[in-house]
Amino acid sequence: MPRDIYTEFANTGLGRSLTKNLGLPQPAKLRRHRPGRALVEGPVVVLGSSEASAALAERMLGWDLDVRRHIGPKEKVAAVVACFDSVSTPAQLSAVVLELGSLLRQLMPSGRVITVFRDPAGTEDPAVRAARSAVQGLTRSTAHEMRAGGTANGIVLSDSLDASAPGAAGALRFLLSGRSAFVSGQFISVDTVNGALPNDWDLPLDGQVAVVTGAARGIGAAIARVLRRDGASVILVDIPAAGEQLAAVANEVSGTALQLDITAQDAGERILAHAAQHHGRLDIVVHNAGITRDKLLANMDEARWNSVIAVNIESQLRMNRAFLASALFNADAHGGAGMGPRIVSLASTSGIAGNRGQTNYAASKAGVMGMVAATSAQLASRHGTINAVAPGFIETEMTARMPLATREVARRLNSLNQGGLPVDVAETIAFLASPQAGGTSGLTLRVCGQNLVGA
Amino acid sequence: MSAQNIRDAVIIGGNRIPFARAHTAYATAGNQDMLTSALNGLVARFGLQGEQLGTVAAGAVMKHSKNFNLTRESVLGTPLDPKTPAFDVQMACATGMEAIGSMANKIKLGQIDSAIAGGVDSISDAPIVVTDELRGILMEANRAKTMSQRLKAFAKIRPGHLAPQAPGVNEPRTGLSMGEHMAITAHAWGITRAEQDELALASHKNLAAAYERGFFDDLVTPFKGLNRDNNMRADSTMEKLGKLSPAFGKDLGEDATMTAANSTALTDGASAVLLGSEEWADQHDLPKLANFIDYEEGAVDFVDGAEGLLMAPAYAAARMLRRNNLSFSDFEYLEIHEAFASTVLAQIKAWESEEFCRNKLGLDSALGTIDRSRLNVNGSSLAAGHPFAATGGRIVGSLAKALHGKPGKLGFISVCAAGGQGITAIIEGR
User: Fold this and answer.
1) Which of A251, A258, A277 has the CB atom closest to B287's CB atom?
2) Pairs of residues, one from chain A and one from chain B, whose beta carbons lie less than 8 Å apart
3) Which of B122, B104, B125 is nearest to B113 (CA)?
4) Chain B closest CA to A275's CA: distance in Å?
5) Are both A306 and A161 inside the same structural domain?
6) Residue B223 neighbours by CB under 8 Å, 6+ apart
7) Residue A342 domain-assigned?
8) Percent of chain A residues topping a pLDDT of 70
9) Phi, psi of B353, rounded to the nearest 5 degrees
10) Of B23, B64, B386, B404, which is the active-site residue?
11) Are residues A186 and A213 in the same domain?
């Protein structure tokens, strides 16, 4: 993995004073999840007097957190949960917003701001919708103002959903934790009461069987490691030519290596057969495998266009048809306790913002987002979910090949002033694949440090 | 022990690294690297991390003295439970088959429930032996108690002592290379150049086609950037093969038929096969591709020329088929390893020969004919290459996969070996 020398320097004593005096970006060392480590390392302040604020405060007390309604002016704060779920006019925002603002300077490094509000699309009342939409704007802007590795994100509850639903607790815990280190300015919507909270928060995927495509290196290998760490048995898939690295990662995570080209017509069936043979079940599918064949559209040839579409989206559509047709891919059927099967696809911020020279790649990744939104309904009947994760600039072998200046700009172009790590993408995928994320489906979640554009 | 106590030995799957022509992709890898890699790929394919297996048996023909515990050291380099015992086998080119056959027998007898068997060979990392004179001086220096004694010993070294002795592939008792031996046999059996070139071409075409349809996706794990056997020539033609001049039996003049293309190249590589009892495979949710039914070793007296060096499998096959009451027509697939194309052709002619079968094998009639459409259908040593001890694992892994899903269908294996030896075997699909 390439070294981010600027960030290393900026975190030395000299580097800190120099970057501060010169007004340069100050990328902080992000707090990341380690099993056994405290969820947050200080008090959590809950703002607002709504139904959600009571439910979430009670939930956090159950996690043995130091939950406060008020806090002294000198005390340090690990996180602020600002509840706006009962606002019905923009004017009603101010009380909570101003209190939130007064606490920002007290936030510890890698601090968290989490707003909670109702889905703007859930109402036709202009004033109510304005108030709800306003929370999105204030959350995104707060994220831009966060310092020292801090992030701000929102939880969007559907109108009728009780805030004590497992999905709300799952999203809250993810956003509080170091698992969401590189997620900022984003919203996790929780729409249903589906899902379940794990017995052991360090092993939320205990007993589950996951398949990860493109698992031989980079983000795919990181996904396999995190799923394993969270308790899953992992089937690692990659093309036969990547078999040596695939075997090494499989042996590291005590998984099984399946050498397979996912563009094969029967790739889904072969994955199902492997899962049936070795585990008798399949609960989680992570469509990570993808390729880039960058070229300006004016110079785009058929092979470049077709191969990217075939690998990045057509193969996923074909495999999903096989998975959804199989009784094996139905976690509820084998004692999943309301868990339901999970699919997580890799999209990209390129698919959101577009990127020069990436019409094929951006098309395929935008396609993934569309596919995820549409497939959500098909999984609902078995309490399953499908979501996408859109990484921004991540430090991988692929981005290491970028020209130095382009790479350096891309790294600093987000609110955290640094590139993310493969593990950051993997953590978000593991969250979306977990029982506690059962209320979230059809979503594309960016892991980009609030990148300004697609990278 | 009564026959009822014999249980099935199941072939669960195989793994090998791509085979590489000597001094190419694996020039800097040693036997232990390659065997470890083949084992690691097998462990990853079947999720055997942390498993304590019954035994691991493997070996190499060209082996450094420092690799005295090659297989055990390789096992220690894998995520297998270090409490898994391992030992080295050596029976020239039949090493891999002997390792597989003997492990299958242990499973059949209930002595162990699981095993890995295979082999490795590196020509590129062959042990260099010093001259006997130099070795004598070095040992004398080693025994020396004082510096002056040691210097006195070293002073005896002469330039001529320093020439390294390349490892011989010549037969020690005849001084002839294996190719020269085979040239004699091929000539005696009247094997033509065209027949040999056809067999070589079929090997390349069949191997390339098998790769293309993904047959090796779950049999081969890349190593050191090599994805496929680099000896394979998918674009080979009879015209191209016909242009090569003879490499062996040159003293036969016009009658010399053996070329570099219809003889197997010196190769580096490693292979491994996972075996288990039926219960063990079921308990571990592992596939059951085939049963290892039987195997037979053979040897011939080649020193005085009474029989061809590589003809031992002809004899072993006859005994094995009689014991199992089978004939060649009972087999769905036949895997006959070619040290040389002419080896296979000479064996086939011998089995088809009434005279040979009566006089040499003691049978009433010819052993039978081989249906060429069932012979080496997924490629063979001529195209894949032949890292001596690794060939058995390659064949058993591929044949077991080919027979999987064909319950009761049989596969025949024949592997010739240096020293006038050979092994034949039978496996059954399930």
Assistant:
1) A277
2) 70
3) B104
4) 10
5) no
6) A244, B17, B18, B25, B26, B29, B34, B37
7) yes
8) 95
9) -90, 120
10) B386
11) no
The residue to which tokens 């698919």 are assigned: A351
| Arithmetic mean of pLDDT, A383-396 | 92
Select from A162, A190, A218 the last residue of a domain. A190
Range of the domain at A393: 209-447
Q: A325 and A251 in one domain? A: yes
Domain end point (choices A125, A160, A190)? A190
Answer yes or no: is pLDDT of B1 > 50: no
Instruction: Kindly determine whether residue B41 and residue A244, on different chains, have CB atoms separated by under 8 Å.
Output: yes
Q: How many domains does chain A have?
A: 2
Ranges A228-242, A291-305, B125-139, B258-272: which has the least confidence: B125-139
In this structure, what DSSP letter does residue B263 have? B
**In a shared domain, residues A151 and A247:** no
Contact: A254, B45; criterion CB under 8 Å: no
Residue A5 has a pLDDT of 74
How many beta carbons lie within 10 A of that of residue A402, not counting itself?
16
Residue type for B197, please?
D
Residue A427's CATH number: 3.40.50.720
- What pLDDT, on a 0 to 100 scale, did the predictor assign at position B4? 60
| Residue-wise pLDDT tens digits, B127-162 | 777 778 888 888 888 888 888 888 888 888 887 777
Q: How far is B209 from chain A (nearest CA, A)?
A: 16
* Whether residue A346 is found in the same domain as residue A314: yes
Model confidence band, residue A334 (pLDDT cutoffs 50, 70, 90): low
Across the range A126-139, mean pLDDT stands at 96
- A306, amino acid identity: N
Q: Are A184 and A274 part of one and the same domain?
A: no
Distance from C-alpha of A205 to C-alpha of A226, rounded to nearest angstrom: 10
Contacting residues of B for A248, CB less than 8 Å apart: 40, 44
Q: Which of A416-420, B14-18, B221-225 is the least confident region?
A: A416-420
d(CA A246, CA A236): 7
Q: Say if the Cβ atoms of B222 and A261 lie within 8 Å.
A: no
Q: For residue range A13-41, what is the model confidence (pLDDT) as tens digits?
A: 777 776 777 666 778 899 999 998 899 99
pLDDT computed for residue A419 by the predictor: 87
Q: Reply yes or no on whether B23 is catalytic.
A: no
Measure CB to CB from residue A277 to each of B50, B78, B285 and give the nearest one.
Answer: B285
Q: What percent of chain A has pLDDT over 90?
A: 76
Identify the contact set of chain A against chain B, taking CB-CB distances under 8 A.
Answer: 236, 240-244, 246-248, 250-251, 254-261, 264, 277-280
Q: Are B70 and B31 in contact (CB under 8 A)?
A: yes
Facing B217 at nearest CB: one of A254, A255, A259: A259
* A109 in a structural domain: yes
Range of weakest confidence among A65-69, A331-335, B136-140, B358-362: A331-335
Can you give the pLDDT at residue A455? 41
Structure-token pair, residue B232: 């394979």
Is residue B47 predicted with pLDDT exceeding 90? yes
Whether the predicted pLDDT of B385 surpasses 50: yes
Name the average pLDDT for chain A.
Answer: 91
Q: What residue in A sits closest to B43 (Cα-Cα)?
A: A251
Which pLDDT belongs to residue B132? 80
Asked if B217 and A278 come within 8 Å (Cβ–Cβ), the reply is no
Locate the chain B residue with the closest alpha carbon to A266.
Answer: B214
Claim to verify: residue A181 and residue A253 sit in the same structural domain: no
- DSSP of A30-93, one letter per residue? PP---TTS-S-SS-EEEE--SHHHHHHHHHHHHTT--EESS--TT--EEEEEEE-TT--SGGGG
Contacts of B47 in chain A (CB under 8 A): 250, 254-256, 278
Do A270 and A417 reside in the same domain of the chain?
A: yes
Instruction: List residues in chain B touching A: CB distance below 8 A.
Output: 37, 40-41, 43-47, 49-50, 78-79, 214, 216-218, 220-224, 227, 285-287
| Distances in whole angstroms, Cα of residue A321 to Cα of each of A265, A310, A326, A371, A402 | 11, 15, 9, 12, 36
Mutate to test the interface with B, among A239, A246, A259, A263 (most CBs of B within 10 A): A259
- Decide: B31 and B77 in contact? Cβ < 8 Å: no
